[in-house]
Amino acid sequence: MSVRIVVGAQFGDEAKGKITDFLAAAARFVVRTGGGPNAGHSIHLPEGAVVLHQLACGVLRRGVVGISGPGMVLQPTTFDEEMRDLERRGLLRGEVMISDRAHVLLPLHEIEDAWQDDLRARTNPSAGLGTTRRGIGPAYADRAGRWGIRMGDLARPALLRERLEMLYATKTHLANLPPIEEVAGRLTEVGARLAPLIRPTEPVLWEAIARGEHLLLEGAQSALLDVDFGTYPYVTSSHPTSAGALVGSGIPPTEVDEVIGVAKAYTTRVGSGPFPTEDTGEMGEYLRRTGGERGATTGRQRRCGWLDLVLLRYAARLNGFTSLAITKVDVLGGLDEIPVCVQYVAPDGSTVRDVLPSQADDLAKAQPVYERLAGWPEIHERAKERIRREGGRALPPSLRRYLARIAEETGVPVEYVGFGAAREDTVRVPPVGMGSSPASLSAWNG
Ligand code: IMP
């Protein structure tokens, strides 16, 4: 039996989809535990690229059940389209299940999201959050306010209508909402199509655990976007942490074996909010171009910068990572030296190593202190083939030292390395843990 959690360790877009897809090969169930169409998990299959917004990565693998879990907010029409599109392309190989407890994202939530962000920006031009405008914040707010509509309600037209009327009564500040009649009709129609997939999913998972099957909980967004522990208010409205993965699936903490934190070898962020290691100059542009750093959901350019070990240590403490997956190491190939932030100096002169100030302004004022690590050569296709064939020992030595330094500084062993976009460009390496020295890297040579 094993329950593994995969969560993002930075600001999102760490290639969690790729790592989840890699780990899904050994799983029977993959559960998306939070967020909704604000996420875009990209997976590069031999047949072409797939971006999953609301479906769990498991649906791409035969014999795997992909569950869109109770912690999610789902837009039923685009969910249906996403599924049909995969089906048309012959890529829907696993089974799909939808939690009856997942909340429904409505057109009014999208309208409210844009209204709120515009209001913030109008009140204070620097206060706009830059949300994905998918309605995520308002949908989670209605969930907490107990105004929400759940996927299980779609099969009950009278209840649906009643709840829609109540919800609409709370939105008198919004103009141009689509008529209730029309929304109810569309929801009932798509609800009927999705009905065979909507069910209580937590008993399915409890029984799977009892049978000794492997479960993977797939977090969306990332730790530093957590509504409580991220860079509030520049965060999403859910808990994209390991704790959130439990609430978002209904699995108790006592069943969890592993928590895998996914981090890029550098850092990116979309939307507003503090980003201490952001490089707004030439090198930031280089990372954006080389790493293809454009949002999979909104197409927005991502802000780019260097690896921030303060944030990574904080994410490790917050989530209890048992291992790290470091992705996109190929993007840094060819650089002579790579700056890595090891600590901050706060405005009062104190040093910060593994805590995140609760005020975003304080984080914005922190001065990153960099250590410069040796770079590695470009990882061309021939080198990639060698890594695929020979595993971690074929990674360039200075890259191995970079990974060992991350493990040493965070106290978490690096166990997975992503070195390209393709499905096969992930390698599992013998874990290099705390206190690893170049000597301990000899384990990789075996
Ligand atoms: P929301 O989740 O759409 O409300 O957006 C809140 C903040 O989280 C914005 O800065 C978004 O850009 C960011 N965000 C939301 N989802 C993702 C994601 O999947 N990857 C990266 N950033 C995200």
What attributes does this structure have?
32% helix; alpha/beta; 3 domains; Adenylosuccinate Synthetase, Chain A, domain 3; Adenylosuccinate Synthetase, subunit A, domain 2; 13 helices; Adenylosuccinate Synthetase, Chain A, domain 1; globular; 10-stranded mixed sheet; 446 residues; 4-stranded mixed sheet
CATH class of the largest domain: Alpha Beta
E-strand count: 20
Total domain units? 3
The CATH architecture term of the largest domain is Alpha-Beta Complex
At CATH level 3, the topology of the largest domain is Adenylosuccinate Synthetase, Chain A, domain 3
Number of helices: 13
Profile the largest sheet. 10 strands, mixed
Strand order of the largest sheet: 9-7-5-2-10-1-11-15-19-20
- Beta-strand residue percentage: 15-25%
Mean pLDDT: 94
Explain this structure.
There is one protein chain. The longest helix has 17 residues, at 107-123. Strand 19 (414-418) and strand 20 form a beta hairpin. The relative contact order is 0.14. The strands form five sheets. This protein has a ten-stranded mixed sheet with strand order 9-7-5-2-10-1-11-15-19-20, with helices on both faces. Strands 14, 16, 17 and 18 form a four-stranded mixed sheet that branches. Strands 3-4 form a two-stranded antiparallel sheet. The chain folds into three domains: 2-94 and 198-258, 3-Layer(aba) Sandwich (Adenylosuccinate Synthetase, Chain A, domain 1); 103-195, Adenylosuccinate Synthetase, subunit A, domain 2; 265-432, Adenylosuccinate Synthetase, subunit A, domain 3 (Adenylosuccinate Synthetase, Chain A, domain 3, Alpha-Beta Complex). With 446 residues, it is of the alpha/beta class. Helix content is 32%, strand content 22%. Helix 3 crosses helix 4 and helix 5 packs across helix 6. The radius of gyration is 22 Å and the shape is globular. The protein has 13 helices and 20 strands. The structure holds inosinic acid (IMP). Inosinic acid binds at residues 12-13, 38-39, 129-132, 134, 136-137, 220-221, 225, 234, 236-237, 270-271.
